Amino acid sequence: MGRDLLRIAVLGTIVGCGGGGSDDTTTSSGSGGTSGPIADTEGSAATSGDPSGPVTETAGSGSVGESTDTTDTADTADTADTTGTTDTGGPVAPTCPPTGPADVGVVDPDALVDSERIVVSQSGTVIENVHVHGDIEIVDGATDITIRNFKITTDGYWGIFVRDGSGIVIEDGEIDGLDQIDDAIRGAGYTARRLHIHDIGGDAFKADGDNLLECNYITAIGQAPGAHGDGVQMMGDGDITIAGNNFDLTSGELTACIFPFGQDPVSGPVWAEGNRLTGGAYIVYCHENLHMSDNVFGDDYAYGPVTDACGTWTGNVWESSGEPIEN
To answer: Residue 91: is it exposed, middle or buried by C-beta count within 10 angstroms (0-12/13-18/19+)?
Structure first.
């Protein structure tokens, strides 16, 4: 069934609110050899800046451009789009895991229009074709939100924060954290696909539960002094799938590509399947709720590919030799 979708235009100002840091407990000072893990309970990055400032506010403003769209946003959330076409006009399947930035990110750079930070409180909102100089924040239980063909450039606390919302689809975009922000994306109830995430002060993803992370290229995280960068850190509930991503973490102050711990371990199942993983103190910190299958491990790490025991471990191999990795 069709529904009216709210499409974003720039208007108005409101005051935003601040953010928090990471809860990692172990860190590496880079991808080379170090003297050993360092206990830490503080934030992942010392951020400068504040998400306060001019924003686009989507809550029921008549001056925001509205259009009728026959695409049901529930269908949008459930369907993985493809990018580009073949010579015969058919869709091109994305390369997953991506080999680099060229495989993911903004699909139509010429369509991007500059925007201030955006706060979304109205369900059914579509944000597209924008270069946001600041962050995007989802509030007030907004549902069925789509963010696509976008770029975010910010040195605040995060790129996208699902503070209170669900059914969030974030696809075909780029987040540049200017070596400052704590998290590229954080929260529960979001899907992130075909994103280029880079130059992040702390973590790429904070995943609080009901998350799908697929076909993203992540590099240059943990760039802020004292950071404990993770490709993805699980902060609460499970039901998280991490599939077909390239965590290419060869610089920065890093903990892991996959880190299933906040103040407590993730409480539900996490499936990591078909990813390329390289970088960290250990590349993966295992836990009984983490299930690893058919992942390829690179050679960048401080102490080893994996620590502790995962719930299941099958088909995980070294990139350089194809030999199996034991857990």
So the answer is: exposed
